[in-house]
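Would you mind writing out the residues of a protein together with its fold in token form for me to study?
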Amino acid sequence: MTPSPSPQATLRRAGFRRALLPALLASLFSTSALAADLLTISRDALNNNAELASARSLSDSVEAGRDVERGDLRPQLNAQGNVTHTRQFESQTATGVAPGDDRFTSAGVTLEATQALFDARNRRELERAEREIDQQLYRLAATEQQVLIDVATAYFNILRAHEILEARRAQERAIGRQLEQAQEQFEVGLIAITEVQEARASFDQSRAERITAESNLQVSFEALERLTGQRYGEVDTLGEGLPIAAPTPADRDHWVTLAMENNPLVLASRAGVEVSRSTVEVARAGHLPTLNAFANYQYSDSDRDNLSGHDSRAQVGIGVNLPLYTGGRTQAGIRQSSFLLESSQYDFEAQRRDTVQRVRSLYTQVSNDVSTVEARAQAIVSNQSALEATRAGYEVGTRNIVDVLNAERSLFDAIANHAEARYDYVLNLLTLRQQSGVLDLGSIEEINGWLASESIRLRLPDEGAHEAALNIGAPPRLDD
């Protein structure tokens, strides 16, 4: 018994060429197109993605906020200086003294140093800044993982669109040949005009599907460019040896536990609770006194009344400030921050539940994808056999052309569905790792090992040659 051909071999026997993206895009960009695989493009995205760059800058800003709060606990040194020219007009005089004007210049300098000995509020604000850094680092990690999954999604959507376009073009050619044969049979009186019309309608539908598939491929390349800021002339395809296996370990609860320990969004929400708790402590510190040590030196000089010399004074001491009543502001701040703490706790619980649900669903989906890919592959074989049987029946008169056209369409739908299933499996597996918090460049490198060296290139399809093969607009005849 002859072994069943693989879906990819079925397409190759159909004489189908690789799907090509219009090179007309090249004139729209000044940079040259690059050739790359998934790992290279992922690294490009980590270096050039705008959203990730923004998240990194925000993380640096939050980290700088810690130094701002720390500065309030360090010594403070201030200097003030002034030079003043005064002109004083006098109208009142003593007996026997003539009135006159008084002009003089004075100068002064003040130096003051303070050091917080006890300031609970500033100390709590520093602790809050530390918690905010932790939270932002988790958010940054989540952004990095999202960029990786976005790149993988865009990359495999290109390959998905490419394989679907292969199927649609092969379908268009096959139905075009069927339409050509129907016309020839009609011209010699073997079939009615209705069968020609049925074939033409089916061909027009397949042509529309091919045009849609070409458009989807073009859009998929553009989506990848948005993530990296670079245009790629070709990308490696997914190899036929793609291992389709259930997630390892095959334990859904293990993946849930992994997510609770590593998912950066869960960890960021948990850190958000600590930030809110620190905010409550900052508000409560408003009731506490502050204790500061201070030292100052003052120097002044003036030429008024023709006096010579200067005045100076130095002080050293400790100051205490105890807030007795602030109009209820402190207590209101405590209530406000307490409500924010409660809100952050609910946010954490919502994020935890959402992550658990996503991990469980993705684990189930990946497990089901394994069976789906196998079933879709078998469907290609079954539809190929059904098509051959239908063609044989058509030749002996037991089937009509509608049956043949339906069988043709079913076969290429099965090929497209198989491509969908393969890429759904890959993306669902990567998303499961993302939700579990273990998606990194190592995971991308593993997936990258599944790619073949064969690439999809950017070229302009020869639409004129494509349509000129038949005067009805069918594709060119292919050699079997």
Summary: The longest helix spans residues 120-187.
